Amino acid sequence: MRTIVVREFGGPEVLRLEDASAPTPGASEVLVRVRAAGVNPVDGYVRSGTYARKPDLPYTPGTDGAGEVEAVGADVKGFKAGDRVYIAGDNVSASFSPGTYSEKVVCRPTQLHLLPERVTFGQGAAIGVPYGTAYRALFIRAAAKAGETVLVHGATGGVGIAAVELARAHGMTVIGTGGTARGLESVRERGAHVAVSHKDANYLDAVMQATGGRGVDVVLEMAAHINLDKDLSVLARNGRVVVIGNRGRVEIDPRGTMGKDAAIIGMTLFNSPAPEIAAMHAAIVAGLGNGTLSPIVGREFPLADAAKAHQAVMEPGAHGKIVLIP
Known about the structure:
- By secondary structure, the protein is α/β, with parallel strands linked by helices.
- It has two domains: about 1-125 and about 295-325, Quinone Oxidoreductase, Chain A, domain 1 (Alpha-Beta Complex); about 130-270, NAD(P)-binding Rossmann-like Domain (Rossmann fold, 3-Layer(aba) Sandwich), CATH 3.40.50.
- It has ten helices and 15 strands.
- The strands form three sheets. Strands 3, 4, 5, 6, 7, 14 and 15 form a seven-stranded mixed beta sheet that branches. A six-stranded parallel beta sheet has the order 10-9-8-11-12-13, sandwiched between helices.
- Helix 4 (about 160-170) links the parallel strand 8 (about 150-155) and strand 9.
- Helix 3 packs across helix 4 (about 160-170) and helix 3 (about 130-140) packs across helix 9 (about 275-290).
- The longest helix has 17 residues, at about 275-290.
- The termini are close together.
């Protein structure tokens, strides 16, 4: 089978396509034929060696994917050959397994979730990190509630689209930002009540106008190095900013939090304990099944072009999810 292997940390060029023997599942494992693998920004951070957690070398990248079950171990319950599944990391291992940038992969049952027929394999590969991150940011870290207003900064990417859908499905008022007309249209189609271009100099005025001057209860921030200080200016009393993405240091005025009893909350999906992971995917599978959640695949690359996919995932103007097709 073909697989991507990283033998040294570095730039996208260290992603090498190699031939390998197909793995065999153990008694408590499942073999999946991967039809699509999700590419996330964190995959690039890990590959570069700059992320806080590093896998042992060599390794195959990828925690997200979708495909068909080929074989199950003797002790596995709940899955059978032919099942359509999506793959999501379960944080049990310190390494970034299972390594979905491959034609076949062995998974733990806790990493697999049944994929409804209405959802394509490409969409299935767009679920794990984006939808898990959005769910945890909204409902676990920010404790968002129906009736509150959320500003999704960077709503056109994989996490942003997921956050818009999840917030709207839970009865929140949703404001999303983006940088392209195509992206903003997608944000509206996915349920945002208001979509504004962050390229407009006064776009935060539109946010305040949309809330009648009150401000927003929750901000989901994908680029804190650019927006964090400005986010504080549009928070309502007891508002919360959840920092999902950041690429550098930023200066803020803490007085923006004081009079509002506001909070700045950090998060990473990889801190989720097992019960959280189980709960978030139960909610996500339900949303996929009833149609309230419908991931957007922005671009597809063949497996051999994993390096190009890693370059693309870091570029501005994201629209949906980037996936690899083995």
